[in-house]
């Protein structure tokens, strides 16, 4: 049997634990352990102080860690925001320069890729704009030249300088030729304007492509005859049907044949070959100077014009 507790009668400042001492079943004495209460309170106060101190230190460290992590998130996000604003302002050389292997890094790399794409598109846009300016400059020149020629012929005829009937007829024929050239140029410009309209639709119908080439050969006979250029057409069928716009097909192949004549030597031949297996194949080959390797990648670009010196001698535009 033992007893413990807090005893007011002993001063209320001690905790006492008592245990009897027995020998052969008889109680011969007792043992008492006494501890001062104020010492325990001091231990409790010290423990509470350590607990509160530990909590404060933990909160401070957590706050520092939170600031570091928040800065690690806010800094790259701020950089990406500034880069996006610069891209929106047309500064396509801007980059985030963020090198991270997490989701934020993936987003930053995506913005950098977007910046590169926008820069390439801007360069292409500037090139197209310059090509468009050059195109219209060429158009102005091409219109000015025939107008000047027609005016000169007209003034000569009006002033009566030329009276010979044969020469007068030649003047009229030259004026007519210049008018046809201007008409073709204006028609090309109108077509180009229509094709740039997003609502432009090519009206397709069954077309015999052999009939198109037969008409083209008759049309180019006058200009090919001047250089004694023969046109040879090879076919393995009496007709070749396809879906398309007759006028647009005629104009496209007319430009190709016109260029073939311009850049071919005299006394040469233009070879046209038509064949059809599963698809219709059209081959047009001349014996001229050809296209340089530098110009080949650009032959399907809008407004592109070769820089060959011979091109400067030809008074026509190449509308791609």
TrEMBL record:
Enzyme class: transferase
GO molecular function terms noted in the UniProt entry: ATP binding; phosphorelay sensor kinase activity
Keywords from the named record: ATP-binding, Cell membrane, Coiled coil, Kinase, Membrane, Nucleotide-binding, Phosphoprotein, Transferase, Transmembrane, Transmembrane helix, Two-component regulatory system
Reaction(s) the record says it catalyses: ATP + protein L-histidine = ADP + protein N-phospho-L-histidine
Cellular component GO terms, alphabetical: plasma membrane
Entry keyword Ribonucleoprotein: no
Source domain of life: Bacteria
Location(s) in or outside the cell: Cell membrane
Listed name of the protein: histidine kinase
Species assigned in the record: Anaerocolumna sedimenticola
Record lineage: Bacteria, Bacillati, Bacillota, Clostridia, Lachnospirales
